[in-house]
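Why predict the complex rather than its parts? Because the way molecules touch one another can change local conformation, and only a joint prediction can capture that. The input here totals 526 residues.
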Amino acid sequence: MRKVYMDYIATNPLHPDVLNAMMPYFKEHFANPLSIYEPAIKVREAIEDARAKVASLINAKPNEIIFTSSGAEANNFAIKGIALANQKKGRHIITSLIEHHSVLNTARFLEKSDFVVTYLHPDKHGIVDPDTVKKAITNETILVSIMLANPEIGTIEPIEEISKTLKDRGIIFHTDAVAATGNIPVDVKALGVDLLTMSAHLFYGPKGAGALYLKEGTRIIQLIYGGIQEGGRRAGTENIPAIVGMGKAAELAERELEARMNHLRPLRNRIIEFALNNIDKIHLTGHPEQRLPGHASFVVEYIEGESMLLLLANKGIYCASGSACTSKALKSSPVLHAIGIPDHVAQGSVVFTIGQETNEDDVDYFNKIFKDVIQRLREISPYARGWGDMEGKECTAKN
Amino acid sequence: MYSKKLMDHFENPRNVGEIPDADGIGTEGNPVCGDVMKIFIKVKDGRIKDAKFKTFGCGAAIAVSSMITEMAKGKTIEEALSITKESVADALDGLPPQKQHCSNLGADALHKAIEDYRKKHQGKGEG
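Output of the joint prediction:
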């Protein structure tokens, strides 16, 4: 059976060159880079080489890159670290309702410590309007955190415009660029951000490797205390293979970025166009143009996401959904809710994300199966002829 | 996550459809939270002669609907009323804990269909 992996937003396979680059650091080059002997110096050099490559990918300086264990750690570090370093200036933070859990849950944690957080509503395409950011600013605002691209609906946020509205106000600007880095051009200077989060496994690097860009001269309080690793900003013996892998992945991403995007866009469009032209009552979620090149996300009316996922998986197609039944918490996606999709329609959420291994035959195979699966489930659905009166219905069940 | 038996009932659901002249119809659930099951029954001489369903929901919800219609067919009304959430889950070799509450609506939908049948046929000497 054909296997078509369409969940690149969950994680990417490791690039073979990345694996090759990592291998020696599991075996031969195992020394602790803090030591002073020759093998340790070699490892230290490997870290600095990786740092330079990651910096180059986002047009930063090497000393502005702090390696972390994940994007989630980098988001925690950025938000807690900036909030704590600036709490004497003010205690107000602005973010949006469609951020990753590692941003939202960190913001909620800070609310318990007497910080005040404004959660901005995006528009129906998931765009956070720079004007809404501007209007939310108070004299107390110290930090704004808005993601660069949303993993669930693919929308790319107007970070440059938002940073212009923050200019000369002394407000620090963080962007979670996990879904974007290595997939679209990311230039910290053009974006005008002070902090940026990235994660290697979303650009064919290893899991367990993330990084935070921290603009030179920006004060931050550590998240992890201990030794002097990462310039004293993040303690813990370095995960050398992961860092080396992230460096290699960054080098490849920088070199191949244009080609990668050109590979993805027509395939993504083929998915979106087929679905919208051949399937009834299906809606693209997120922005039609301002979206990640490999990202196609939909809500399919009258059926539910998990059952779609299972039937697609039976045909070797692996993808994601934001439906309540798919989530362990049994809550439908807050992102779909925030862009105004009614909860019963959000149940039919499906997210397809493709990558460099995806080809046109895969997409054509997928398109046919996707249509069949929808038809099959609609034959079972009591709503196949319409929702009836769903106006104002609320979920009263205690899950 | 799901048992083999459950996956079989999800992938090859039995008794999908509607009964146009059903003797009883029961609906349970809400698509805003998750699953909705609609069960149709045909009753003759106090026995469920036929049962069909339409379901909006996850794999577990569809499998539960398929299983409960299978279990209900051929049973007397009294026997069908003794089918519980637990017996349906057991017949499917278990449900994941988080699916017990929201997806296991089959027994409630069936009991509602029986209630509907009884209401319609009160004093008619049927059932």
